[in-house]
Design goal:
about 100 residues, single chain
Length: about 100
């Protein structure tokens, strides 16, 4: 997946937290579609959940936390999300442009 840094930078700086959240959800869905395994991605209130092979991984991201991460940089939200998943044992693939941008 190609990371469009200019668009993300604009959304993080000028866009609302809600707009960044919508963009982030679409990004996560796109990344998971590139994985070989079939993952279910859903959001329930402040919980971002991925379910695969009976295992559930979730990251709690209330609006205030998303806002804080938004202030830190265009990919801070993504970085936090993937690191939280990785800490839970989710097999994060780091070989594409997006993931290299998120985790420089």
């Amino acid at each position: 997946m190609n990371a469009n840094g200019m668009a993300r930078g604009y959304i993080a700086k000028q866009g609302t937290t809600e707009r960044l959240t919508r963009h982030f959800k679409k990004t996560i869905q796109s990344v998971l579609e590139e994985y070989e395994e079939d993952y279910e991605f859903k959001v329930e209130q402040d919980r971002f959940i991925i379910v695969a092979s009976g295992t559930s991984y979730d990251v709690n991201l209330p609006v205030h936390r998303i806002y804080e991460l938004k202030q830190k940089g265009p990919y801070a939200l993504d970085r936090y999300f993937w690191r939280q998943l990785e800490a839970q044992g989710f097999p994060v693939k780091k070989d594409d442009h997006y993931m290299q941008t998120v985790n420089p």
